[in-house]
Amino acid sequence: MMTAYIDKISYYLPELTKALSESGIMILISIVAAVALGLPLGTFVYLTKILPSKSSQWIGILLNGYINIVRSFPFLLFVVALIPFTRFVLGTAFGTYAAALPLSFVAVAIYARLVEQVLLEMPNDSLELARSLGSTKVQLIFRFLYVEARSGLVLALTSVIISMVSYSTVMGVIGGGGIGDFALRYGYQRYEYAVMYTAIVLMIVFVSVIQISGSWLAKKINKK
């Protein structure tokens, strides 16, 4: 029985390897977008609450609207609704890189909200210290906020990565491939349940490694 299982997995190994690489590409692109755009976006939304001004008030409302809409939108419908925009930006709405675009939108929105929440949980002492030293907004962000909140920001990013693993499993709808699409096409639809459960176990292991690594790193850099 074990020999039959090994033979079956070996037969599907090229497709499994391809699916894993597709998932990796989609998740990597979305996480880079989350850090590059979601981190400053969440920081700005936070600043509009603790340092309100007329000029930033409306921008804060618009950014909050974007975050709320994207996070509340049913993901599969969001992917389909974004097809015209994806085609306009990338020239195609089909494939792994096209699938990474809606994933990136969601990753940015989720991480932005988590960043805001992490910063809001910071003690007021840090803000008071920054103000007493006459810090500029840039200094406040990089020398106080991010330094004090780095552990929470890492944990928040860990949660986003895990969410992207989950979201990426449905990207076969627009030809994105990935491990979820592999499990469905080569496992469930062909009644190869051993293949399907192998893919599921791989995803569980991957998520567990991400969670353990993220928790370890957050604890490592936590100087409180």
TrEMBL record:
Q: What is the lineage of its organism?
A: Bacteria, Bacillati, Bacillota, Bacilli, Lactobacillales
The entry's protein name is Methionine ABC transporter ATP-binding protein
The record describes its membrane topology as:
Multi-pass membrane protein
Q: Does the keyword Transcription regulation apply?
A: no
Broad class of where this protein is predominantly found = membrane
Q: Name one GO cellular component term.
A: plasma membrane
Compartment list? Cell membrane
* Recorded coiled-coil stretches: none
Organism of derivation: Enterococcus plantarum
